[in-house]
């Protein structure tokens, strides 16, 4: 078992070293001067050739859907209301996300408790 573990660690070392070098290069490159026309997504398209792994991380972070909420609703005790023009998720997509979340929770819960549900 130890030899399998050692082989796994040895295979991962080059990727870890490459990522470390990528992070160091990114931090050493310095800040990009701010202009009003600066677009962070365009910057990652160009800079992504130098930072392949970091570009994937940035893509995952920038790909997270967000919604804007008026400040008065954040402190309201009333029900939450989301205007139609503020939501881009269709009802089908909301259903897919809710089902996926439920399936994943149950999968990890079953793995944690050692149960296996038969379908």
From TrEMBL:
InterPro entries: HATC_C_dom, RNaseH-like_sf
Start and end residues of each HAT C-terminal dimerisation domain: 22-104
GO molecular function terms listed in the Swiss-Prot or TrEMBL record: protein dimerization activity
Protein name, entry field: HAT C-terminal dimerisation domain-containing protein
UniProt source species: Aegilops tauschii subsp. strangulata
């Amino acid at each position: 078992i130890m030899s399998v573990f050692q082989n796994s660690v040895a295979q991962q070392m080059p990727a870890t070293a490459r990522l470390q070098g990528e992070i160091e290069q990114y931090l050493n490159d310095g800040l990009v001067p701010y202009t009003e026309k600066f677009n962070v997504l365009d910057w990652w398209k160009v800079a992504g050739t130098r930072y392949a792994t970091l570009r994937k991380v940035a893509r995952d972070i920038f790909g997270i859907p967000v919604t804007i909420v008026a400040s008065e609703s954040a402190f309201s005790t009333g029900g939450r209301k989301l205007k139609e023009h503020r939501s881009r998720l269709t009802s089908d997509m909301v259903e897919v996300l809710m089902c996926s979340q439920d399936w994943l929770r149950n999968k990890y819960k079953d793995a944690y408790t050692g149960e296996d549900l038969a379908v």
